[in-house]
Design goal:
alpha/beta; 12 strands; nine-stranded mixed sheet; signal; 419 residues; three-stranded antiparallel sheet
Amino acid sequence: MTMDALTRRRFLLASGVTAGAALAAGAGGMGIAHLLRTAGQDPSAARSKKLVLVTLYGGNDGLNTVIPYTDPAYHSARPELAYDAAKVLHLDDALGLNPVMRGMKQLWDEKRLAVVLGVGYPRPDRSHFRSMDIWQTASPAEPVTTGWVGRWLDGTKAAPEAAVSFEPVLPPVLAGQTRAGSCVSVGGLELPPGITADAVAALGRGEPGEPELQARAARAYGDLLHVERLVRGAERHQSPSPDNAGEEVLTTGPGSRSVLETQLALVARCVEAAVPTRVYSVSLDGFDTHAMERAGHESLLTRLDRALSAFVARMARTEAGRQVTVVVYSEFGRRVRANASQGTDHGTAGPVFVLGPTVAGGFHGEQPSLTDLDDGDLKATTDFRDVFGTVLASVLDADPDRYVGSGYRTKPLPLLTAD
């Protein structure tokens, strides 16, 4: 006597095979196989502009990312953390990138990197949760239940695959009132002892006449195996050529690359397959650098630099990829003065990166003063809604006034070149 399909599913759930299945079967969940099946359904998908949001969770230290290396106030406020001018990757005669960000420096030299300076919001909040909520909902004045991309999904009556997160849970930015983006797990499949891939594959085979939700859960198990194959097979093995000589080979998979690289590799796979997704959300965690910041922050920036530079290089090779714009942000910067633990505490404004083939490279906005401070923190010189409003208009062809906050009118920034 064989175990029926439903009992087998319950058995594997109890055994711990739940990572992507529960997510894919739940609200806002979508399997990668389903997402890739949408490829080719919209002939214009390869030509449509696309936005990739990269969230740096924890509060990135903007002053040690885009470094005011000639400012005496920078060196006096954080003598143990400040970088010598000779080590900084100079962008101009006042500002430069952290020494580990060599890939981003190359993108700057190629005019494919824009740095928006001093980005923040009025009356800053130093809580991780509240500040990230503000950035993702574009509502500094009061809490709201929808994200600015989610409101765009509502307004355009978009399909679930129009916005996709490759993060463990659906971020608030993709949640609307009547619509929501989809969340696709990239964790791969980790089988407990005694459970084989064949057993999981059996759960992906539907049973005649079963309810739709049960069938959807079954498909999710099949998607788990598909995710595993995609993650392990997202490698780009290319022989050196005049066009890509010196480029880092993009290899992703468990134990080989960072989570962000894996997420961006799957974004690239979807873009190249011409799925109709217009917005992707990915993330990198760990930026809450209260103690012994220098080494940990450099490690994080190395991962960020490697992932972004490889992704932008890959996107430049195809027509679909050349329609991609990347925006990198964090919920706040850090305080100007270092703390007693050789780290930095929660601050306010920081830089935002915008990358891609159609980006108007260079600085945008004004670097905040390190001496004219608000209780020890930087005063924002650019409202974050100006950045998001600009990409809404330029990338998503949407009216920014409709989606970035009640009563707020954005000032367009020249972040992207004309078509």
